[in-house]
Amino acid sequence: MKGRIFDIKRFAVHDGPGIRTTVFFKGCPLHCLWCHNPESQSSETDILYRGNLCIQCGRCVAACGEDALSLTAGGLVRDRERCTRCGDCVEACPSGALESVGQTISAEDLVAGIAKDTLFFDQSGGGVTFSGGEPLAQPAFLCEMLDRCGEREIHRAVDTTGYTEPAVLRDVAERTDLFLFDIKLVDSDRHRECTGVPNTRILENLRLLDAMGCRMEIRLPVIPGITDTEANIEGVGERVASLGTSPAVRLLPHHRTALSKCDRFGIPNPLPETPEPSAEEVKQIADKLERYGLVVKTG
Questions:
Q1: What is the architecture, at CATH level 2, of domain 2-43+103-298?
Q2: Does this model's pTM top 0.70?
């Protein structure tokens, strides 16, 4: 059993309880305008370019058989239409300015790497978190990893958009100790505009997990002018308060890290001028949600 990932982050403390190892799956059915991991959206390998490391030697250009690369005064330019992501340019680069993002890995190798951190999990009450991208987009591989980690008594969390078939979610839920479940926008048309998909299936799956008694933490990205409107905050508050499992809500303030990532990957940024919300603005949202009897966290 093999799957596609693009990163492994050890000693993570914001992806569930305790010290955790977070595995980032490659590929996502959503394309959120504010995505902080734009390199995760495609299931294919991407090429990362760090202009500050480029020595303008031209070896990558010579190695590219598709004529997809060119050197300019501003650095290396990649034609994403011509590029096949073969990695020849990465191999030719002597300075480390180019890097392939995305790899195929076996469940056996991945769980062996995760298990190396078991001591930290045991001491802190931590475990492994499968994030992305969207881990539910690779259900067979995800279930295999959840089973293998369960056999080792490693706490398992799944960070998800909730966008999948109900049958897939049931299979995953039987193997998961904690869901970090995103709610972005309660208006389905607006959700489609901002993420590429409606939210009907997502909200249905939220109710499914609640009916199954699954442990959840609801995550709300705070994107100024998009998710922080009065109507959206009220809608989130009402829906979460109606859940029988009484999950906490974690606010995730927008940050501008994705801007540099988009530049490095040559990906257009649809929200280049969107500011980060102030601490006071985030507190006001938390106060509104707390009026629904919810436990609200920020970070």
A1: Alpha-Beta Barrel (3.20)
A2: yes
